[in-house]
């Protein structure tokens, strides 16, 4: 499976288009005040579809090292 | 913490200038990723004409030339002939390429210039305000056809891949869509093949990417993607229209 991952957002770059929200297979994401919010992080399966689809590079996955 | 995904080095560190939900951002990212993967960032030159693609000047961390409306293939021809060791691509929209730039693209393709065209087809004029483009679908509304495109006075949508694939010189002509993750990955693979063929000196390559325009279509980003599937992708079939002989 590799190292554990976490979902990271760049709220400054998010334009609130809703593509990631609409197409997330696990309904992890929501728009709050027109900006992306990781509302249900425990449901995330780290498929990376949000990262692939986001036109604005405002959401991506990071690997979490063991020390953290 | 190690990043699984990092911003392509061939993109500048700034938010994109495109409208919310516009898939131009995905195209820009794919081009930058391909340039990074091929390790050609120092040797790549983008030619960006007028339209939403102009905004790529802000986002590509590459050498870029701004061209007059529709004239990117002519500029690319001149640059490539002067610097044949460079990888040259044009990044054009449908209003630019298929309307005011129709002569330039046809002759560039017909001469088999060793450049790559990335053609973003969202079936409408984007930056200029939502006018009918040569690719606008029959019945699709635009600011210059408020009741929808009528083929009796405006003709039918231009199918650029089909037209260019009829020419002898082009070596790779393909159409992809950006509506789904699977199709985005297929598009990236096709775009990469086009760049590689250029690097091998094979000749002219043409990639058409079906995209959306939530702003001028007057719908949400999600609805625009569904509209693409229901309409654009039926009018413009996906696939490779011309491939090099060794790939057949």
UniProtKB/TrEMBL annotation, chain A:
Lineage: superkingdom: Bacteria
Residue ranges of domain 4Fe-4S ferredoxin-type in the record: 5-34, 35-64
Gene3D superfamilies for this protein: 3.30.70.20
GO MF entry, a single one: metal ion binding
Annotated keywords: 4Fe-4S, Iron, Iron-sulfur, Metal-binding
Keyword Thylakoid in record: no
InterPro entries per record: 4Fe4S_Fe-S-bd, 4Fe4S_Fe_S_CS, Fe-S_Ferredoxin
Name of the protein this chain belongs to: 2-oxoglutarate ferredoxin oxidoreductase subunit delta
Natural source organism: Dethiosulfatibacter aminovorans DSM 17477
TrEMBL record, chain B:
InterPro entries the UniProt entry points to: 2-oxoacid:Fd_oxidoreductase, THDP-binding, TPP_enzyme_TPP-bd
Name of the protein in question: 2-oxoglutarate ferredoxin oxidoreductase subunit beta
Database matches in PANTHER family: 2-OXOGLUTARATE OXIDOREDUCTASE SUBUNIT KORB-RELATED (PTHR48084), SUBUNIT OF PYRUVATE:FLAVODOXIN OXIDOREDUCTASE (PTHR48084:SF3)
GO molecular function, one term: thiamine pyrophosphate binding
Protein's organism: Dethiosulfatibacter aminovorans DSM 17477
Chain ranges of the Thiamine pyrophosphate enzyme TPP-binding domain: 59-208
Coiled coil location: none
GO biological process, one term: cellular respiration
Domain of life, source organism: Bacteria
Keyword Oxidoreductase: yes
Keywords assigned: Oxidoreductase
